[in-house]
Specification:
Shape: elongated
Mean pLDDT: 83
Oligomer: single chain
Largest sheet: 4 strands, antiparallel
Distance between the termini: 40 Å
Low-confidence stretches: none
Number of strands: 8
Length: 104
């Protein structure tokens, strides 16, 4: 198991934006690309997705907080070995696809 940080991504020209919704809770298991919070600027609102799959250990923000790029949203416990194996399988499958014509 490995603990990873999910942070606020690039938010464009804004120095800070407001957290208007927290979509997850501590102890919840989420998948990669699940939305974790909603941010609002003067121009729009946007949901921030998770970069990882796993169990949420700690949420570092709350509704009303002002956050900027790089602010830690939450900590998530992931199965790093499982994720690495999945990446390895994708890489190997892609490599085999590229060389299969040369082998056959």
């Amino acid at each position: 198991m490995s603990e990873q940080k999910i942070t606020v991504p690039n938010i464009g020209d804004f120095k800070e934006v407001e957290v208007i919704e927290v979509l997850v809770h501590e102890g919840q298991t989420i998948k990669k690309d699940d939305s974790v919070i909603t941010l609002e600027s003067d121009k729009s609102s946007v949901e921030v997705p998770s970069n990882y799959q796993g169990k949420i250990k700690k949420i570092n923000i709350k509704v009303g907080d002002k956050v900027s790029e790089g602010s830690i949203i939450l900590l998530i416990e992931t199965n790093e070995k499982e994720e690495k194996n999945n990446i390895d399988k994708i890489y190997i499958a892609g490599a085999l696809e590229k060389i299969k014509d040369f082998i056959l």
